[in-house]
Design goal:
The structure is a single chain. By secondary structure, the protein is an alpha+beta fold. Helix content is 34%, strand content 24%. The model has no long low-confidence stretch (mean pLDDT 93).
Length: 487
Amino acid sequence: MKESEYLIRKNKLNNLRRKFKIVFPNNFKHNTYSTILYKNYLNKTRNELEELNIYVKITGRIINKRVMGKASFVIIKDTKGKIQIYVAYSNISHEQYKLFKDFDLGDIIGVEGILFKTNSGELSIKCKSIILLTKAIRPLPSKFHGLSSRDKCYRQRYLDLIINDKVCKLFHDRSLIITKIRDFMIKRNFIEVETPILQVNSGGAIARPFITYHNKLHTKMYLRIAPELYLKQLIIGGFEKVFEIGKNFRNEGLSPYHNPEFTMLELYMAYANYNDLIFLLEELIRTLAITIFGDQKIFLNQKYINISKPFTRMSMKDAICYYQNIDINSLEDLNLITQLAKSINIKVHKNWSIGHIQSEIFDKKVTHNLIEPIFITDYPIEVSPLARRNDDNSNITDRFELFIGGYEISNGFSELNDAEEQSIRFTQQNLISSENYYNNQDYIVALEHGLPPTAGLGIGIDRLIMLLTNSKSIRDVILFPTLRKKL
């Protein structure tokens, strides 16, 4: 921004302060939006609009302005869209027109006038009165060049929203998706609940927490990494179906698929298993696609993904064998799988078991191949400390993850409800981890009161929205993503 332009606008504001008692009025009320006018009157002829004599009051930000002597046009952007305003010296007071000529791009105005169509057929408002509501001291970015970088779009999201209609639509879609998810859950008799974000114990997932301190209680506290342990306590308490949409926090890296603060849907169903969750999840994704986009297809990375058919299922070991082209016996011998991992540049920790190495190979070498919707099942017990052990194979759990477009969308499993086994699993996890992730004795006590057979599911809302809007980065679907501090 040129400093001179900033000073020019500051001088304009100072002149207004000297001339008027109130420079930022707050008593103008609009009675319509641009999109409503287009919807109701775009198909009317000039003569029909003249006969209707529709008087409107509208507000918006000036995004374009053409002053041509005593007749001018401005385009304003309101919260719904854009519309043209015709401002003529002969239609408003001379004082208003004089003030109007000093209005700048970015200023927020209120307009009263009559709806009409120009000679070229453009729906417009013939201004009868115009008022400056907010003077913008800083100019908008150039309409030709926009914001200089994606980083600036994230840091100054308000500018991104002002100049980029696609970004506005994306976040309207985000709001709609979350609303439809909530409707979907409530129609299936789930109860929406709220559990603590600030927690005394960190738990519910293997992740590094953000740590804070409560001065009055003289105790360390954590921003939650997952609401899981609290939600299952509600099932123990007698609720049969619960869900929560809320923020989780993990003190880990940034990537196109990871933000330290993110939105999750978690749900729990008593007297259900992970197969029930698979059907529910498929139904949810199809419902969202149909409701929002009118089709059982998702456009992703220049191709359509058909979600109308049941999603593929494949065990983790089968997926590794398929995509790494190796024999399954190599995955079930500690020496062989260790050699395999090292040969593909995976660092193997000394305390890792076969299951840990399988999981690491899968994460590092397989997941990016999973473009079409696929449920990966049969996760090793070592990496699934809260999941129920499989009845037929004690080395795996009744767990799945859904992958679409090469990244994980959801994680679900039949819940471990044996309190004694859960206590052992927590201890085993803490022995192999540098972080004491699982130290929640309160949850063990709750389990000892009896958790009915239950299945639980977590969905990364931000990743789901990336999928449904064909976005390349999680930062594109979060209004204010976490960014590195500017130097």
